[in-house]
UniProtKB/TrEMBL annotation, chain B:
GO MF, one annotated term: ATP hydrolysis activity
GO annotation, cellular component aspect: plasma membrane
Entries under Pfam families matching the protein: ABC_tran (PF00005)
Domain ABC transporter, residue spans: 4-232
The keyword Nucleotide-binding appears for this protein: yes
Gene3D superfamilies to which the protein is assigned, alphabetical: P-loop containing nucleotide triphosphate hydrolases (3.40.50.300)
Organism, scientific name: Micromonospora craterilacus
Coiled coil (UniProt feature): none
Name of the protein in its database record: ABC transporter ATP-binding protein
């Protein structure tokens, strides 16, 4: 992500953090320590270079830019697809399996129902972000990403809820 | 204040019960989703609330008046003036242009031709299809038709909009754009909305979701495909 932000023009650490938090408003804000640690690694690997220092009324700041290797690494990353892995190790799935192994059908169902409520509530919050009169495309695209994933989980929760009794019988037979 | 109310509504088609005693209160300006699997009775409930169908048993009230006892013509007048209805397939009149379709409810209510046309084009513009004002439905995409139908349902600035799977026939992006605009306008004008859907993602546009199962309001939280007891798949 930092390479991508530098691809749009050289920046110093603070500008990188700000650009990250602006572009990905719904992800966790970047900590400064994380920005500088990552920049340190990128410098070491020759993917970025320090192009200058300036000091306007504050502490001295180093500006960073992509090197040719950095540009190549960014292009490679952008050109490769992520493995389409189902999130089978996710806490949601694990909890349902454990609830079924360890408890009875009612407990597993109670968990599924409670989880579905929480998912539905979050879905409603994210949808409200999209329908707000002042929503920007930044907000909408980020909300869409989360909504699509929650929606997939919800569909799975629904079908699992109706399969839970049979599944319990199978697991304990 | 309760705007719209159903009390113990029962409705059957021949021997098949569609609603088996539904009670529901909708407040003014509220956006309520009625959801549940196919055949749970959600469309029938919408038709009863909108005064299109009369319940076999039970009451439907609008601002304290029992509309289920009204004559067909009185209910039809109510639907023209206070209610807007939107279905899955826009049901535009094929022979009329988009602007004529949208102007239709205003003309029926006695608005002059020129004022109705101006309002219609204005509403088409709110749904981003003003350039289609003089185009007939046959030459439009499904998404464009549904935007026109939504504009037509809202042109009279109804107190309540009844929408039955309004985006069911649209692709995801178009559906979301139509819903977003519909919800924004409803909030702006404090229009009450009853939105029937089987999709959680669509229901999330509402302030509140009422789940129906087998013709009754489901308070168990199970809802949808789930059913209790043995032998479920």
């Amino acid at each position: 992500m930092l390479l991508g932000l530098l691809g749009a023009g050289s920046k110093h650490g603070y500008e990188l953090k700000r650009a990250h938090d602006e572009r990905l408003p719904r992800s966790r804000p970047l900590a400064y320590g994380q920005v500088y640690a990552t920049l340190g690694r990128l410098l070491r690997d020759g993917l970025v270079t320090a192009t200058g220092q300036d000091r306007d009324a504050g502490p001295e700041r180093t500006t960073y830019a992509l090197t040719d290797d950095g540009r190549a690494a960014l292009d490679q990353w952008l050109g490769s697809v992520e493995p389409p892995m189902p999130h089978v190790t996710g806490a949601l799935f694990t909890k349902v399996v454990v609830a079924l192994l360890d408890a009875d059908v009612d407990r597993a169902q109670a968990y599924l129902i409670a989880q579905r409520r929480a998912h539905t509530e979050r879905l409603r919050e994210l949808t409200a972000v999209k329908t707000a009169a002042r929503a920007t495309l930044d907000d909408i695209v980020a909300a869409d990403y989360a909504i699509a994933h929650l929606d997939a989980d919800l569909r799975w929760l629904h079908t699992t809820l109706s399969r839970v009794a049979d599944w319990h019988r199978e697991v304990h037979s | 204040m309760t705007h719209l109310q159903a009390r113990g509504v029962v409705k059957a088609y021949g021997p098949t019960p569609a609603l088996r005693g539904v009670t529901l209160d909708v407040a003014e300006g509220e956006i309520v989703a009625v959801s549940g699997p196919s055949g749970c009775g959600k469309s029938t409930l919408l038709h009863c609330l909108a005064g299109i169908l009369r319940p076999d048993v039970g009451e439907v009230s609008w601002r304290g008046d029992r509309i289920d006892t009204w004559s067909e013509s009185a209910r039809s007048r109510l639907r023209r003036t206070e209610f807007g209805v939107l279905f899955q397939f826009g049901q535009l009149v094929a022979e009329l242009t988009a602007a004529e379709n949208v102007a239709l409810p205003l003309l029926l209510a006695g608005t002059g031709r020129r004022a109705a046309r101006t309002a219609a084009v204005n509403w088409l513009d709110r749904f981003g299809v003003a350039e289609l004002a003089d185009v007939r439905p046959g030459e439009m995409s499904g998404g464009q038709q549904q935007r026109c139908a939504t504009a037509r349902a809202l042109v009279t600035e109804p107190r309540v909009l009844f929408a039955d799977e309004p985006t069911g026939a649209l692709d995801t992006l178009t559906g979301e754009q139509v819903l977003t605009q519909l919800v924004r306008l409803a909030r702006e004008q404090r229009t009450t909305v009853v939105l029937v859907t089987h999709e959680p993602r669509v229901a999330a546009y509402a302030d509140r979701e009422v789940v129906l199962r087998d013709g009754m309001v489901d308070h168990t939280g199970l809802g949808f495909e789930a059913s209790l007891g043995g032998g479920v798949r």
